[in-house]
C-alpha cells in the first residue's frame, strides 16, 4: 500500500518496456514517491522484467494502478502536468521541473490531487494526452538531443519534488565518529606552537617581513575548518619534526 505522505501521482502513459517501468519505480522510491499509475502498458501487466529492474522498489509495482486510458488514470486529479521536451502547438503554461514541483507542493498542501504524466519511450506523449494537462513540465536539455529516457525524466522530477517538499540542506560536513570542531582557544594554541617553533628555526626571515609572515600564518589557520583531531595531528607533526631534527 502507498504511504500516507502527501505527494503527486506519477502516471506512465503507455510505457513500452517493463525494464523502463521498473527503473521508473526505482527512481520514484529514491525520493520517497510511491504512487504510480500505468496506462495501457504495451507488454501487459504484471511484467516480470519490471519487477526485476525495480529491485527494492517492487512495492510500488505491487500497488500500481493500471488504467485502460488516460482519462481513467486522471479521473480523480485536480491538476495535471505533462512532461515533454518538444513544443506541441498548444497554449499552456510551461514550467521547469523545479518551478513545477514547487507549485505542486503548494497545491497538494492546499488539498489538491496532483498528477505528473510521462510519455512512452519511443515518441513521447501525444497531443491527445497533453491536451488533458493543465501545464507542461519542460526539462532544459540540449535542443539538439532532447530525448530523455523514461526513468531519467522520472528521476529529475522526483528530485525536484524532494527539494520542494523536504528540508534539504544545501551544504553540510559529515564529521568522523566522535569528531568535533576545534574551539578558538585550540586554534590559538596551535598557531602559537607553530609560530614559536618556526621562530626558533629562523623561518621568519628577513626580519622586515617577519610580522607579515606571522600574520599570513595566523590567517591560514583561521581559514581552515579544523577539527580537534586535525589540531592534535598538526601539533604532532611539528613535535615530530623537531625531534627528527634534534636527533642529528
Describe the 3D structure.
This protein is of the alpha/beta class and 248 residues long. The chain is built from ten helices and seven strands. The protein has helices at 18-30, 48-54, 58-63, 70-74, 97-109, 127-130, 150-165, 184-200, 210-223, 228-246; strands spanning 9-13, 36-39, 65-67, 79-83, 94-95, 114-118, 135-137. It has a seven-stranded parallel beta sheet with strand order 3-2-1-6-4-7-5. Helix 1 links the parallel strand 1 (9-13) and strand 2. It is elongated and about 85 Å long. The N and C termini lie far apart (74 Å).
Could you name the key traits of this structure?
248 residues, alpha/beta, Alpha/beta knot, 2 domains, 7-stranded parallel β-sheet, 46% helix
Topology, please?
Blueprint: E1 9-13, H1 18-30, E2 36-39, H2 48-54, H3 58-63, E3 65-67, H4 70-74, E4 79-83, E5 94-95, H5 97-109, E6 114-118, H6 127-130, E7 135-137, H7 150-165, H8 184-200, H9 210-223, H10 228-246
Parallel strand pairs: 1-2, 1-6, 2-3, 4-6, 4-7, 5-7
Briefly characterize the structure.
This protein is of the alpha/beta class. It contains ten helices and seven strands. A seven-stranded parallel beta sheet has the order 3-2-1-6-4-7-5.
